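User: Some background: our group keeps a shared notebook of sequences we're curious about, and every so often someone picks one and asks for a predicted structure to add to the entry. Today it's my turn. The entry only has the sequence so far, pasted here. Could you supply the structure so I can complete it?
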Amino acid sequence: MIPPLMLDVQPEHWVLDMCAAPGSKTLQLLELVQGTEGQASTGLVVANDADIKRCNLLIHQTKRMNSPCLVVTNHEAQSYPMVKRTTDAGQELLQYDRILCDVPCSGDGTMRKAPDLWRRWTPGSANGLHPLQLKIAKKAAQLLKVGGRLVYSTCSLNPVENEAVVAALLKHCEGRLQLVDMSQSFAPLKRRPGLVTWKVRGKRAGSKWFDAWDQVDPSDPDAGGLVESMFPPLEGSETALSRCVRVLPHHGDTGGFFVAVLEKTAELPVPASHVSQNARKGHQHTDNDKSDHRDVPAPTPAPAQASAPAREQAIPADGPECTEASVLETTVGPSDPQDQQQGQPEQDGMQEQGPKGILPKGQDVVAPAAPREDQGTLDDTPPSRTVLDPPKERPLTKSKKSSGVDPIVPVTDLDLLHSIGDFYGLSALPYPLHQCLISRTPGAPVPKKLYYISSSAKELLDADRRGSLRVFSVGVKAFERQSMKDGSVPCKFRLAQDSVRFLAPYVSKQRLALRLSDFRALLKHRCLLTTGNESSSVPLLSDPAAVEDLRSGRCGPGTCVISIRKDDTLEPVVESGLSLEEFTVTAWQGAKSLNLLVGEVESSKLLDALADQFGPAETKQNEGESNEVSHEVDEQENASEC
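Assistant: Of course. Here's the predicted structure to add to the notebook entry:
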């Protein structure tokens, strides 16, 4: 899709998708952020949606990537929380390199695929959406880094939703946000420049058309709901608006959509309301101090209390030099109260309902923003047991029921971490295991599921000390708890199929390579016998090399990673673009069999992909028929010789 491509995302970028559901554009952003295979990405994709049910749809769409660089949040975009993080220079606003605003719109550009829109569409349908779209765009401009890129897009052709929003945003930012000329980019794309003039009509049926805001009479019933920002700018923005991109349906036999690419050149000016509010607060605090302590000498404040009045002092209004970062204390914090009234998701794992984020300040267990000296850095290898003593467990404060999500708890049990790393031979991980494993079961002695997150996702969660972000899902499910009555498997966790394609290159133990015929048989029958005689329903593992690996103990009992053995004779019939590493599954090795740990739907898809790439599997009946034909040919040749 065009809007994510125009963002020009690089693997190191932090990207925010403010209105992400259903997730097709988010999936495209994830592919751009993950970059080159085999290299750890320092980027991050934060996908947000206001509807909690659409968040489930968003997770379902992005599950194909199974990326540790994805964070899904549930907030209204126009009131997205502004998080601050601690740096060497102090506290600063956490901002993003790239932001995609594919805002809610009337959708009149999609009428070819959704003809039912014709019955309820009117020229004034966009009037009710314009204020919301403008608020989302303003919030995105605040969250964007200086030098970053913002893409505003809709699937509508109504200028009230498109050029009017962009013009109002440029006016609000006072030259600190500029439109980028994309006329020379994506040359094959047929497009039209943005409109510089248009008419506006009231939402009521039969309303009049207005050319400019000065023609609107507030007492006119046809002017109900109209605001000044809906109209074309008076002067100075004609050239800028022509840099917007309009794609009409007949240009490329597609739907119609609008795209505007903007870059931030400086921090935005502080709204006058923020400055006046802080000034009033400072003056009120000063007056109260004078009246309360006029006759009584003020006691010497404690060190912890002495800094409190300083935070309440008025912020000087120095004009353009006073930026949004200077009023960070008043702008960051919990989101709009409406966010707290969202419905609660079903409690069924991270994929349906995610954690709320690292526990807010004031709770007992949080992941520190900077690791202790005895913990190493993100680039360090996991510490040995002799270097680190397991941290003492402290009680966790339960999350509020109104939030609908559980907190994220960092995994700090070193014995558990070492047992996982030793059993699977995990080495050279892109993100250290001892710092990037989390759970969402606070207080549990042994978590049920462990999730693997990237270092960038961990940095975001560490920065959110106030717990203002409502994190719906983060990372990828990596390990699941297993119970063994006989204790034959030393590791309590099995490798989850969700993360096998990501973690498999770093697993040096518990690996088993099968030839193509055995791999197909495992996917089809979901079980292979490793010893004994072959039955009618369960085939016997016939690969001698794999049998030797099991017999020698190179692949012990428990969860193992199964892949296809590379063979010179294994040539694809069709170049589908899939490598052999894509066909990797997890299985459980028991005393006498291998049992597949993959769902039936996924195993069926893998079988179809194998058939497309390597041709259909040969059945025993086909093999028998070919043997009979060859035997008849041999008899005919012998008879002719006689």
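Suggested note for the entry: The first strand starts at residue 14 and ends at 17. The radius of gyration is 30 Å.
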